[in-house]
Write a structure and sequence with these properties.
Layout: E1 7-9, H1 21-27, H2 29-35, E2 39-42, E3 47-48, E4 59-61, H3 81-93, E5 97-102, E6 106-107, E7 112-121, E8 134-141, E9 161-167, E10 172-178, E11 200-202, H4 207-224, E12 228-231, H5 241-249, E13 258-261, H6 268-277, E14 283-285, H7 287-298, H8 313-316, E15 321-324, H9 345-353, E16 359-363, H10 364-367, H11 379-391, E17 397-400, E18 406-411, E19 422-427, E20 432-437, E21 446-449, E22 458-459, E23 465-470, E24 475-480
Parallel strand pairs: 1-2, 1-16, 2-5, 5-12, 12-13, 13-14, 14-15, 15-16
Antiparallel strand pairs: 3-4, 6-11, 7-8, 7-10, 9-10, 9-11, 17-18, 18-19, 19-24, 20-23, 21-22, 21-24
Helix pairs in contact: 1-3, 4-5, 9-11
Length: 490
């Protein structure tokens, strides 16, 4: 069978801090394989500032994968290093590749403070200074007492950072840029310059830092056997850093890795510009498409469904787009909350999973639910959509985007996949019918709505046309009735 790459983001923000997630992942590996998932994106696996309660983005020690007694625990939120590596090995045996989440922008939870000369910056415009240089007490010394020199003897101090957001001598929260340092260019221009995000901002111009992160990257790939990286918060990191880092980490490019970056912006030009400056070394998540889904789902039928892909990365550069519906940042209660309402989730997942462009990413919180926020699992229909992607969504794609509220498309199938070929109709308001052509090879065949939203059957006429429909506020995915005789294709 021809491969259809599909990613699952295997975590959500509110997973229990029970150190059992890697074990659950290992137990779920057969199921993931059956679904057609061939890439699993795992959460940050190293020790965070909040120890066992850290989701992973408050990076403390990149080398502690749940092995050392640091920050109040040996395991991370998700488990021990041994359990992590065992889960990865099991996934790889099932030909499921592993994407690891890495954070190279900042560190948090320092072991000691240092007195540093710093300039206070305007929070909303980092190009504006609010003070002359003066001494502050910054949390910038990382000694890793629980790990010592195991794996790396490198110890971090203020020279390895651009700045911080806390002066411990006055207990004042602000943006402090260290004297003699400068924010990087070729980062997002929000807040004037969005190099600084949180914690102690890593200086990726410092030679010693770059070498250390290169050494760590090599160690990480060798230790875990991971197949790719999800790069966190790339809009805060100069674009030129990543091509050089990846080239070195992948042993001068001899090791092929899957790389996808998170650049959180709705501006397609901004996203494309960053990707170009990074020499195309990474794919990017299609943030503009996510917000198109959000607007479609929250506009009370006023959104023009014909424009659902307008301004999206998957429309302009499908080879570089990783599409998604929701993630750990957009879920309820999080900083970028823009949760797609339940009624529109089937439409959104159909659009990312059953079309030929882009690589779709299924969110753990959608598939398995989010107990903390009383979000129910969507596995009942996601199973059907993923099965359709795996077995039937092949061949030529033809769009029927002619009505502002009712759109459809067909995939005409191919010779390699028996019974392949689908027709999709969806709406954001009132249901209706679209006449779509499947091709004369399907003449006389019956099609069923595999989601079960419509019970009636559609019979393809002698010219290959069918009158396909959906009900109000829903989607119907029409597949051939496999009990019928598949036509010979000559």
């Amino acid at each position: 069978m021809k491969n259809q790459d599909t990613i699952m983001q295997y975590f959500e923000w509110y997973l229990p801090s029970d150190t059992k997630h890697w074990t659950r992942l290992a137990e779920d590996s057969d199921h993931l394989k059956e679904l057609g998932i061939n890439y699993v994106w795992l959460p940050p696996a190293y020790k965070g500032a909040n120890g066992q309660n850290d989701v992973g983005y408050g990076v403390y020690d990149l080398y502690d994968l749940g092995e050392f007694d640091q920050k109040g625990s040996i395991p991370t939120k998700y488990g021990t290093k041994q359990e992590y590596i065992k889960a990865i090995e099991l996934l790889k045996k099932k030909n499921i590749k592993v994407i690891v989440d890495i954070v190279l922008n900042h560190k948090m939870g320092a072991d000691e403070t240092e007195e540093v000369l710093a300039i206070q910056e305007d929070f909303d415009n980092r190009n504006v200074s609010l003070s002359e240089a003066r001494p502050i007490k910054a949390w910038t010394k990382y000694n890793f007492p629980g790990r010592g020199d195991t794996y790396s003897a490198f110890k971090w101090n203020w020279t390895h950072f651009h700045g911080v957001d806390w002066d411990d001598s006055t207990s004042t929260a602000s943006i402090y840029k260290f004297y003699g340092k400068h924010w990087d260019e070729n980062v997002d221009k929000e807040k004037g310059n969005f190099d600084y995000l949180m914690g102690a901002d890593i200086d990726l111009n410092n030679y010693d830092v770059v070498v250390e992160l290169q050494n760590w990257g090599k160690w990480y790939l060798e230790t875990t056997g991971a197949d790719g990286f999800r790069l966190d918060a790339v809009k805060h990191i100069r674009a030129e850093f990543f091509p050089e880092w990846l080239e070195e980490v992948t042993e001068k490019g001899n090791k092929e890795v899957f790389v996808v970056g998170e650049y959180w912006s709705t501006n397609l030009d901004t996203i494309q510009e960053y990707m170009n400056k990074a020499n195309g070394c990474m794919r990017l998540f299609d943030v503009p498409l996510h917000y198109n889904f959000y607007r479609a789902a929250t506009s009370n039928g006023e959104f023009d469904m014909r424009t659902i892909f307008d301004g999206s990365l998957v429309q302009s550069n499908p080879q570089k787009a990783v599409t998604f519906v929701d993630n750990h940042d957009t879920q309820l209660g999080q900083a970028l909350e823009s949760w797609i309402p339940d009624w529109f989730k089937p439409q959104a997942y159909t659009l990312i999973c059953l079309r030929k462009e882009g690589i779709p990413c299924v969110f753990y919180g959608d598939y398995y639910g989010i107990a903390e926020k009383q979000v129910s699992p969507k596995s009942s229909y996601l199973d059907v959509i993923l099965e359709t992607r795996k077995l039937y969504s092949y061949g030529e794609q033809v769009d029927y985007f002619e009505d502002p509220n009712l759109i459809g498309f067909v995939r005409k199938g191919d010779f390699e996949h028996p019974h392949s070929g689908i027709a999709v109709v969806m709406t954001d308001t009132t249901g209706g019918t679209i006449k779509m052509n499947m091709g004369v090879d399907f003449a006389g065949e019956e099609f069923l709505d595999c989601l079960g939203n419509v019970e009636e059957r559609v019979v393809i006429d002698e010219e290959g046309n069918g009158e396909f429909w959906c009900k109000d506020g829903s989607v119907s995915i029409w597949r051939m009735n496999e009990t019928a005789i598949f036509p010979e294709k000559i």
